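Look at a sample.

——
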Amino acid sequence: MLDKLIAWMSLPIFVAICSLGSIVTIFAGDEGMWTFDNLPLAQLEEQYSFTPTNEWLEQIRLSSLRLNDGGSGSFVSSRGLVMTNHHVGLNQVQNLSTSEADYVTNGFYAASIDEELRAPDLEIDVLVSMDNVTERIQAATRLANDGRQALSERRAEIALIEKESFDLTGLRSQVVSLYRGGEFWLYRYKQYTDVRLVFAPETQAAFFGGDSDNFTYPRFCLDVAFFRVYENGEPANTSHYFRLDRNGPSLDDLVFVVGNPGSTDRLRTIDQFRYERDVRHPAYLNYFETYERLLREYANRGTEQARQVSNILLGITNSRKAFTGQLHGLESPPVWTSLERREALFRQQIAGTDLSREADAAWTAIGHATAEAARTFKQRVYRNLVGSTLAEIAEIIVRYVEETEKPDASRLPGYHDSELPSLEFRLFSPAPIYPNREEHLIAGFLEAAKQELGSDDWFVRTVLDDRSPEETAAHLVRNTELANVEFRRALVAGGTAAVVASTDPLITMMRQLDPQRREAEETFRQSVESVLEDSGATLARARFSAFGRTVYPDATFTPRLAYGTVKGYPMNGTQAPHETTLFGLFDRAISFGRNGEYALPDRYWQRQNRLDLTTPVNFVSTVDIIGGNSGSPVINQEGNLVGLIFDGNIESLVGRFAYDSEVSRAIAVHPGYILEALEQLYDAIPLVQELTEGS
């Protein structure tokens, strides 16, 4: 499960492992998450005798989607039908569920348009155009005296570009930094905010094998969900979409994945890798351990409490397992040696060039900046009311009324005019809020903050104010009105005066915290962010001088195209097959007594005799992916959909930093399983007809 947390923490979840040989080359095997403006066409032709046409590329780009819950998806019919992973859509399934109608446990199917349920706050984007704005942004910072001024002027120019584009087109406009500041591109997205749930299987089918099988293979998951986008109250007319190929891919077939990989760090420095290994990963693993314990404590209170945290718990256990694998990779001597050799190769390539002195200074500056980031890391993690939707709403409102009174270019990131529609969509979401869960998580993380930061920390003192964590949580949650959407709207409409006058305890708390938070954030921008951006741009220029655009940029949760072949791999002294079948699914369930993580929904046993047990279930390929790619379509050379990405194997858990096509595998749901399950298990014949229309 690739990316349960990417939407709210921007944490990279899926990665791939490197070998000593492949990492020191600039391009190896099927490696790469390529932008649409810079595809490896020569390599594709040389390796696979295939060169995609412009029409082919436009079709797959306009058929592919980004979901603001942190994953990818695709159009799969002309009537706005969207396919993604169950685990990507799980937050929306949870929001639509109640104690009486638990769609997470029991699944959901809308047999008609009228039965489709509107998701409270799901936004889906499709990339419609791209413009290179590198020269304009570099010109805006050319006269800057230092990194701090360059950062300020760069962000002001980005805000201006985004505003101009938004005002002109009405499209979501986002300037994306590529190659660590080597290039800047303006991406324009068409947004859909009326999104409705069509189908989701039971979690036991979607996440069969649970946490034990997560990041492993062979797998047997029906990790699929269908939504539909609407315009003006009617299903959207989507002329670009993928047709499902029920037969799926064969062994050694060339396949492509188009999606939105979230975050990689393959172009970073050794000092930054050391920061990940020694500071960030250990601290986050401790954080995940605390979060998981609190969620399990709450879930143990009863069935309804377990339902309320099921989606968050799934994300936390996923992240904990992923970060553990990443850390083990960074602690591996062969992997670390490979990372050092990659940087040494880069230094060797630019030695003696005009940029070598600047690059050396940049490496030194990045070392100092990462040391400062390490010093303040725990504070940046724990100076928050973690897990609280109400606290997040309060923080946004307090900042919204202040930031929107400023000129657009002077605002904090997230509050620019081009970003406000998406921000307001989330802020005024009618998604359910669970007060008891809020209290439990606020109290638990305030206790953790005391332990990690000390009782004298200004955040701890301000929030607790001589009360216990439990008393503070109860006071904040039981007396706030922020669960009421109309109350939020009134506060925002009243502007600064209404927020300053408010006696709501969470608003009052955020007003108290905000000045010190802003000061801390500004210090961090000056001492860390500005240095990393400025020095990163210097190294990007040096990298371009050495390697040009033969290198793909790190992932940025923006559309990318990757390719590879369908094949198994050596595993535990044997060989992993390229695909699994329904025979294997039932065998695995029976082998574990049909219990716990290996229990199948009753319908599987009741209708087992209706199924073709030779049907492929999941398959693996060498395609290079990472968190954010969950829900990405796997397509063949004809542009037909032959799979649905949902995970990576355990061998891949260091690929945030490097990649090895020998053992790293992307795991996908086979379209044959999706259609077989819809037909024989869920009686979803109208949905099957829509999916196979024209095939």
The two ends are 29 Å apart (CA to CA).
